[in-house]
Backbone:
């Protein structure tokens, strides 16, 4: 079994390998009949939120794969003398893995999250773009802050009844990561991915920033201009606070 390289970013084991190496490892996991493995994305905002949410912190720290989603994490690695070369986003994992599995054929997906309308659009687009992958099921959970035990039981039963190899969860952070962490042992799947807005990106109802912004580490800017009320705290409170913590850690290590 391949082992990815990781480095410590403020207490979180973030991989320093690129997206292709991550996808190759996930492919190994999907063929492994041992236990479900799951991946999450780490960015400055999620790391800051996790400091005040123990379950969220555990869900990040104990994930089988934590990728550097956010230019702030890449910059933190450089400041701390690490080896992370670039971002690995949820979109990178979803599209890269889907391409590989489509070529192989015979694998099954389940999508958990969002609305019935959007899930229907995902089904249609998957059938066109990735005919080698079966969408075994979808489930739109109730929109509420906390799921009841009955809600969770119904989700787990629907997933297990469909028999997927891969479960994609798109409930936004930190709900999706906490749900995966607390329920993973009940799920009969090989791999679980917390990919949030990728559901919306995939069907095109929310557009990713243009490639030039992604390459410059400014993917956040067009999205912020589209949704300033939702994203202002992330960009103007969480990110600067995160970088201050990184600088304090650098000085601590040098002392």
Residues:
């Amino acid at each position: 079994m391949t082992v990815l390289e990781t480095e410590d970013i403020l207490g979180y084991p973030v991989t320093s390998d690129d997206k292709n190496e991550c996808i190759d490892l996930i492919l190994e996991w999907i063929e492994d009949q041992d236990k479900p493995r799951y991946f999450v994305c780490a960015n400055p905002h999620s790391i800051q939120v996790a400091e005040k949410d123990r379950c969220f912190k555990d869900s990040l720290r104990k994930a089988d794969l934590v990728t550097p989603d956010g230019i702030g994490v890449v910059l933190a690695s450089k400041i701390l003398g690490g080896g992370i070369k670039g971002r690995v986003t949820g979109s990178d994992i979803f599209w890269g893995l889907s391409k590989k599995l489509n070529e192989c054929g015979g694998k099954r997906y389940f999508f958990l999250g969002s609305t019935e309308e959007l899930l229907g659009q995902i089904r249609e687009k998957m059938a066109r773009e990735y005919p080698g992958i079966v969408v075994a099921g979808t489930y739109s959970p109730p929109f509420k802050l906390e799921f009841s035990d009955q809600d969770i039981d119904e989700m787990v039963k629907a997933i297990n009844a469909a028999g997927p190899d891969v479960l994609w969860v798109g409930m936004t952070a930190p709900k999706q990561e906490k749900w995966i962490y607390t329920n993973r042992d009940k799920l009969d799947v090989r791999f679980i991915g917390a990919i949030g807005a990728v559901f919306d990106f995939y069907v095109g109802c929310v557009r990713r920033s243009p490639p030039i912004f992604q390459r410059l580490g400014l993917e956040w800017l067009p999205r912020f201009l589209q949704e300033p009320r939702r994203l202002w705290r992330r960009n103007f409170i969480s990110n600067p606070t995160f970088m201050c913590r990184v600088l304090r850690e650098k000085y601590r290590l040098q002392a």
